[in-house]
Amino acid sequence: MAINLSKGQTINLSKSSSRLSNLAVGLGWDTNRYDGESDFDLDSEVFLVSANGKVRDQSDFVFFGNLRHPSGAVEHTGDNRTGVGSGDDELIKINLNNVPAHVEKIIITASIYESEQRNQNFGQVENAYIKLYDLDKNELLLQYDLCEEFCAETALVFAEVEKINNEWKFNAVGNGFFGGLVALCRNYGINAG
């Protein structure tokens, strides 16, 4: 049975299954009725950060323009440009056994593509969630429904998968960012914009 998390909660993944290695992160959302001319395009991203909270180099940033980490630890299955339909809108696969030694956190984010040009923000998004699956058992482990009210934010940190004392933990973060993907990149050490 899946665990439902709240903002700020942490689950020790290593205690739930000592052999947990192949995960999938499903992200989903709906957009409120929107009268603008542009479609909503939400994108998921992953930052693999070191102890200093920054990526080591560009390859530690996995997104629609770099779908796979060189180590094979993270694979983005592709960009869903509409978010239409039921189920997960975007899927990210994580192999914990392949995570490089320098990586202490895997940060899972979402941003609105061209949010500034399209005058869009997360205040126009509802039913956002993140689900964590055990791919080896084909089982839903946990779900975090983002219930926060975001108004003008154009990017979000959904969650972190963090290694502490050789144990993997899942942290439900739920923090908003202004400035979209560029702001996220700068925050995690990528010169963007």
Structure description:
- It is a single chain.
- With 193 residues, this protein is mostly beta strands.
- It has a single domain (3-187), classed as sav2460 like domains (Lipoxygenase-1, Sandwich).
- Helix content is 8%, strand content 42%.
- It is built from three helices and twelve strands.
- Strands 1-10-9-3-7-6 form a six-stranded mixed β-sheet, with no helix packed on it. It has a six-stranded antiparallel β-sheet with strand order 2-12-11-8-4-5.
- It is globular.
- The N and C termini lie far apart (43 Å).
- The model has no long low-confidence stretch (mean pLDDT 88).
Write the layout of secondary structure elements.
Layout: E1 3-5, E2 10-12, H1 13-16, E3 22-31, E4 42-49, E5 61-62, E6 74-76, E7 90-95, E8 105-112, H2 115-118, E9 125-134, E10 139-145, E11 155-164, E12 167-177, H3 180-187
Parallel strand pairs: 1-10
Antiparallel strand pairs: 2-12, 3-7, 3-9, 4-5, 4-8, 6-7, 8-11, 9-10, 11-12
Concise overview:
This protein has 193 residues and is mainly beta. It is built from three helices and twelve strands, in the order E-E-H-E-E-E-E-E-E-H-E-E-E-E-H.
